[in-house]
Amino acid sequence: MNLYIQNHKFHYELENLTRLFYPNEKITVIKDTTELEEPYINTVVDDKLTVEVKIGDFSKTLGSGLSAEAENERMLCETVYKILCEKTGVIQPWGMITGVRPVKLYRALKKENGEAYADDYYKNKLFVSDNKLNLTKVTEKTEKKIIDSSSENSCSLYIGIPFCPSRCKYCSFVQASIERCKHLVEPYVDLLCRELKETAGIISKLNLKLETVYMGGGTPTSLSAEQLSKILKTVNTFFDMTNLREFTVEAGRPDTITEAKLISIKENNVDRISINPQTLNDDVLRKIGRKHTTEQTLASYELASKFGFKCINMDLIAGLPSDTFLSFKDTLDRVCELNPECITVHTLSMKRSSTLTQDGTQINKADCDRAKKMLEYAEDKLSENKYLPYYLYRQSRMVGNLENTGWSKSGLESLYNVFVMDETHTIFGCGAGAVTKLKDPRSNYLKRIFNFKYPYEYIDRFDAQLERKEEIYSFYSKCLNYRSPR
Fold first, then answer.
1. Which of 161, 178, 237, 405 could form a disulfide with 218 if both were Cys (CB 3.0 to 4.6 A apart)?
2. Cis peptide leading into 39, omega within 30 of 0?
């Protein structure tokens, strides 16, 4: 699909919008040319706004008057959206929204202009469906209570473990097979502990208040019980945990969970874990590259439930290849019977670098309709079982242009998930692939400091990575008039 950009700078949003309707096609952006090659979407700003679409036998041109620049962008997108809805027969559940954080956008509109304005804007300017608007509103109310509980000097800590037993076919995260990279694990753990100590010192010198810790990956429980304990003890020893409100380890794969690892996690003051089956259909598990079974998932949950964690979360994915609605329904029903404190329902995202995409798997209308039906059932079933949506985000190339939603029993929401999705306060990232996001509490300004992605690179260039942390002091010096302690 050729997307022509004539005399304006709105290519980014128009490209993402076009991809909603043509997720399997390459979108080629071409600027300022009069030579149009079919199929194409031609967007023009001169004395008016014009959109011309020519795709096969379909041809349509619409125009409108000029306005302020931001409104011109929205109007161009609206025109493209309406034409593509007509061409494809597809009405997007989230309308024209292509961003990751629809709840954050809604909250900003509500804060600035009131709830009625935000509702009207979502429905009549962005064309969000009533169902998704209602989900946004309910989620926003729960999120707001958590966001308001963060103070100006609050912060969180993310610890990245980039190892997994194997790579799932839908995954695009930078990670390494634990078997193939055994020689990297010990040096990685040692250096990660060094980085954690350095980060603890920075937080202390800046007089910041650590509220949440989240160890994710990858699969943290790919590590041994001793390695897990070493990292967790480093956190407990060197960080001021006085104000800590939650400590999470994403155990993840059921086949990596053992009693020894759970003991290590529990003894180091972790109060929240995840056990992520994705599905309880063994045939689907095999097809997505998971090595565990439904039986292992249930056994791991039963074992973990004996340790008295405050919260166990379970992740599911709607729209997995070969998964049917009835299979998904059975999975969700069985998970609800376990009654975990939190259930996160993801929608399959066809990432470019995933094995599924590389193997040529495409998103078709039947897949989209099936995923939509799965999420509708999940919303009804989880609400019926007294779960509330507490955070929500979207990704590119999601089947059906849907969403990921975290559901929780009242009062057991993951604070970290809300803080990271809302970008509420600074989150310090440690480990390969981790990103430190420095947040100016008096504005929406964010500065990102990236760690090296790959474990070998993290190890080989560790000192250079630590040098980047000097940028943290200059950031706080500028934003909050902190005097650098160095």
1. 161
2. yes
Return the sign of the alpha-carbon dihedral for residues 336, 400, 275, 418. negative
Q: How far, in Å, CA of 165 to CA of 217, rounded? A: 12
Q: What is the pLDDT of residues 305-341, one digit of tens each?
A: 999 999 999 999 999 999 999 999 999 999 999 999 9
Mean pLDDT of 371-388: 98
Q: pLDDT-derived band of residue 485, with 50, 70 and 90 as boundaries?
A: very low
Residue 163 corresponds to which tokens in the numbers above?
A: 């190892």
Of 3.30.160, 3.30.530, 3.30.1490, 1.20.950, the CATH number of 2-88 is 3.30.160
By CB neighbour count within 10 A (0-12 exposed, 13-18 middle, 19+ buried), where does 363 fall? buried
d(CA 207, CA 230): 25
As a whole number, mean pLDDT of residues 443-457 equals: 94
Pairwise CA distance, residues 167 & 173, whole Å:
9
pLDDT at 483: 46
pLDDT attached to residue 431: 97
Question: What's the rounded Cα separation, in Å, for the pair 83 and 283?
Answer: 40
The CA–CA distances, whole Å, from 214 to 160, 210, 265, 480 equal 9, 11, 12, 26
Q: Is the peptide bond before 217 cis (omega within 30 degrees of 0)?
A: no
pLDDT band at 486 (very low <50, low <70, confident <90, very high): very low
Q: What is the rounded CA–CA span in Å between residue 282 and residue 297? A: 11
Phi, psi of 435 (to 5 degrees): -125, 125
Q: Are 382 and 395 in contact (CB under 8 A)?
A: no
Distance CA 292, CA 251 (A): 13
Alpha-carbon gap, residue 481 to 441, rounded angstroms = 12
Sorted by where each begins, the domain ranges of the chain are: 2-88, 102-145, 149-271+415-486
User: What is the pTM for the complete model shown?
Assistant: 0.94
How many CA atoms lie less than 13 Å away from 109 in the CB half-sphere?
Answer: 20
Between CA 429 and CA 214 the distance in angstroms is 10
- pLDDT category of residue 96 using cuts at 50, 70 and 90: very high
Average pLDDT, the chain: 94
